[in-house]
Input
Amino acid sequence: MTAPARPARVALTGGGYRAGLHLDLLRRLPSLVEVTGVLVRSDAAAEAARRRGLPVHRDLDALLRDAPDLVVVSLPAAAAPGLVLELLGRGAAVLTETPPAADLGALRALWAATGPDARVQVAEQYLLSPHNAARREVVRRGLLGTPTSVQVSSTQLHHATSMLRGLLGVGASPARVVATATTSPLADPITRAGWTGSAAPRPQVTTLATFDFGDGRSGLYDFTETQTRNPLRARRLVVRGSAGELVDDRLVRLADPTTVLTSSIERRQTGVQQDVQGADLDLLSLDGDVLFRNPFVGARLSDEEIAVASLLLSAAAWARGEGPAPYPLAEAAQDQLLGRAIVESLATGAPVTTPTEAWAPALAGGA
Output
């Protein structure tokens, strides 16, 4: 891991679960990130931050006094827009959690108050997860030809739609969305708090939704309500293109008119058996070509932590004018629009066609 000229200076707001995850992760990257302070409202959250050895603040002026490059807003969606606007009004660059607003009305109001030039990014990391980043690189290199269809079964609503759009290269094109749901018994042996000790099934909802983006591009959404952490449900990703198909990490493609090739994305993991380098992801490759290289070798991060750290550091570099915007508000707004279309189609039992929104011009070049 090569340290930058100086660590990114990041401040955080909020004392909940996500804020705690960010704090614990950033403390493991001291050469890359300096946490300048934490804005909290409750005594319990303040004490938790102090135990981590971090400066605690109760107001924005104090939080911003140390001139952070980026302020991470880890608040519920209903409360986040107000704080985002306060921070922007004080000249701060902001990374806010997903979704950026609680509903479409609040989302449209947030966009109207900020617009395409606002210094705000949104914390969507799923396409930065190592295997998804490698799969996206397969698509970018044209190994599938033109991507035409994506199937996502791993995460919910706006997270999944960010993967659909990102892999298809869809901007703000109107989409026709049709969603259905079924309820079936499923054991739920682990929660955010840990193992439950119970193998008893309980009713859980599986939602299927189809997306027609036009021009022969489509998506399939398949999500069971506890799928993000339930070990009894797999995560699946399928990308179909004009010259091949990628199913999770297995690729089949047409090399020439009479030659079909099959390949697999290979993961090099250190610390296995007699390897003494320590447990770490090294890289992901295809046919000897590197698709993804772990930027945090030596930090012993999980795939999820690699994705979150990549997003935070990319957002900080963008805030300093040293890199591109990783996931602007317009992208997040379009993904939330599509996610809410799933919910609306389920509620009405009818297809939903998404409108062209005010943020559409910011996405004219695609996802």
About this structure: The longest strand covers residues 201-214. The chain has two domains: 8-123, 127-298.
